[in-house]
Amino acid sequence: MIDKLTSALQFQQQALALRQQRQETLASNIANADTPNYKAQDFNFATALKRATASQTGPVPLAKTHSGHLSLSNAHQAPVAMQYRVPAQSRLDGNTVDMEMERAQFLDNSLRYQADIQFLDDRITGLRKAMQPEQ
């Protein structure tokens, strides 16, 4: 039963993890907008999600918060291929951060993260209703 619940939520778990990683990357780009020679980075979310879900063979990785917890392998999680952004206009200090594009990408990713949270909440609600006995 738990395996079925785990497999039902794996896609959303991977999507949220990648959204969080992309949000951190975009935030790093924005934070370094004035750093000389900083090269803005990003990754293709769709490609990363395909790779992450294709290589998923085991259960959702769990956090080990106590020494008595079982250790699970995280080997099935593929690293994200980071890419440098090509600037639309070069700057004299060598920085490639375009603040307008970074802010737009940050907002877009934030909205998609919230949507993924809502999809996950709806999925859990549906599974919970399916497990309830009829009254």
From TrEMBL:
It is found in: Bacterial flagellum basal body. Keywords: Bacterial flagellum, Cell projection, Cilium, Flagellum. Coiled coil: none annotated. Residues 9-39 form the Flagellar basal body rod protein N-terminal domain. Belongs to the flagella basal body rod proteins family. Structural component of flagellum, the bacterial motility apparatus. Part of the rod structure of flagellar basal body. The basal body constitutes a major portion of the flagellar organelle and consists of a number of rings mounted on a central rod. This is Flagellar basal body rod protein FlgB. It comes from Pseudidiomarina fusca. The gene is flgB.
